[in-house]
Amino acid sequence: MAGLSSQHRSSRHGRHAAHRSGRPVMLSIFSKPKGQHTKRGIDRIPRLSHRQSGWLACILMALLGGLLRFVRLGSPRAIVFDETYYVKDAWTMLMTGEPRNWPKTAGPLDLPIDQIFAQGHTSGWLPQAEYVVHPPVGKWCIALGLKLFGGAGNPFAWRAATALVGTIAILLLCRVALRLFHNLPIALTAGFLMAIDGLGIVMSRTGLLDNFVMVFVLGAWLCLMGHRDWARARLRQSWAKDRADFRLHYRVKVIQSQGHQGQESRVELPVATTGPFIAWSWWRTGAALLLGLATGTKWSGAYFFAVFALISVLWDGWERHQAGYGSWLQSAVFRDGLPAALLMIPVWAGTYLASWTGWFLHGDSYMHSWAAQHPGQGLTWLPEGLRSLAEYHRQMWHFHTTLHTRHPYMANPLTWPLQIRPTSFYWQKLTGFPGLCGLAKDSPCVAAVTSLGNPLTWWLGSICMVLAIVIAIVVKHGDWRIWGVLAGMLAGWLPWVQYMNRTTFTFYSIVILPWMILAICYVVNWLRQNSDSILYRQTMIMGLTLLGLTSVFFYPLWTAMPIPYDFWRMHMWLSSWI
């Protein structure tokens, strides 16, 4: 007994020592004692590093979202909304190099071309090049999906590229949130909200362009945050080195401490140097390239380029100031801003111009010969090819700025964050009782695809966007992270206010979804830091559970699952959703 007691005390002492040393008890149990040998595989348990576990968790969250996007991706087997343009354009680009016109009807029964196309008869295009009003990058991405997954005869292939980039966007948002808040649970919260959001799911399951814009700008924002972290580290290293260099002259500012007579603090700022050159980095180059791809998908990517570049330069100046360098505003303009512009603008513009390579290579592309046919017109100082492209762009600009055709699902941009008027992509009455319709045989059977975000997520995000601004200004008296939250709203939503009377749709708001979620995460992060930990965890569990159940409830309406009409009607919380 004495031996057992002694052994017990020794074991207990060892555990207490492990606690005092900061080592987990579990690790001490599996550690190899001195002079003893343990079985192979037990003496050392491999552990993931903090960085590895962060990546693994974000990837698993993205896989969850991918599952919601790829399952039944080929349903419905019908052209959905604007797939009539982009899928067919992508197919003819893949087959002929350029978009081609299609007849309105085809076949011996003179059926609509979309119906014929969905049935697998995909070779009925006309030889004439089509007038398209969006640049080609997004359609080439759809074409890649068609190439890899069986061609236009397979509806899964129509949407494979959008589903893939929608899944990648979840991973990117996780990484953005992790860089902003340095908290893995909050980063996973961001990924979870993105994974289960209805607009994110619908846009990933439909062959449209907007998902590509979203993933390109989100990737660019992650790159610019990487540049910020790189520049911050470089500035602090340089400041420590410059401060130790007594050849530099300093301006010394003496500050009298309040309430402590005779005590004063000295702040030393170098005037002989303004710090290292941080305008260029591979991060910033990558961001410019991705923003060029976004603009090469839809012109709205140009707004993101302007806003993101400005915020990135302001961050450079602010970090220069935070590091301790003087004349930071002047340096932000001349040492950071102008060189950054000289780097980013050519990369961005060059990427955009390169996206039109196919147009240049094919002599029968739309308006390719306009300059030769109209000598002395247009921008005559440009070579013929560029002059034709410039005139084509002028016509595209005219189309976009004068589009006022009424549509039953058009939505004022001011209503997008509240999802007041979602777009009905697909609605079809079905015969028989497939799917969930068997549960209510007294009700008609329908299938729908409605581009409605999780309403609770969007409503909460709208509230948190306002709260985040208040917290950053009033509570924190300034916080650089607020720009990480506002950037996408300033670039992806605010510019549309100038087109209040233009034909626009709520699904355009997919580009601001990541930043609506970041607004929620900003407020959640503040609550984490300023509330009781138990209350915070309980609130998070209940909130995420409620949001998850809401997505489960709406999922059939996002994925064309056969459901009873009465069940569909239950989802129409607002009359404007019908």
UniProtKB/TrEMBL annotation:
It is found in: Cell membrane; Endomembrane system. This is Polyprenol-phosphate-mannose--protein mannosyltransferase. It is a multi-pass membrane protein. Residues 1-21 are annotated as: Disordered. Protein O-mannosyltransferase that catalyzes the transfer of a single mannose residue from a polyprenol phospho-mannosyl lipidic donor to the hydroxyl group of selected serine and threonine residues in acceptor proteins. The chain crosses the membrane at residues 54-71, 156-177, 184-202, 208-226, 338-361, 456-475, 482-499, 505-527, 539-558. Residues 150-239 form the ArnT-like N-terminal domain. It holds the Pfam family PMT. Residues 9-21 have a biased composition (Basic residues). Belongs to the glycosyltransferase 39 family. Its EC number is 2.4.1.-. Keywords: Cell membrane, Glycosyltransferase, Membrane, Transferase, Transmembrane, Transmembrane helix. It comes from Bifidobacterium choladohabitans. Residues 387-577 form the Protein O-mannosyl-transferase C-terminal four TM domain. Pathway: Protein modification; protein glycosylation. It comes from the Bacteria. PANTHER family: DOLICHYL-PHOSPHATE-MANNOSE--PROTEIN MANNOSYLTRANSFERASE (PTHR10050), PROTEIN O-MANNOSYL-TRANSFERASE 2 (PTHR10050:SF46).
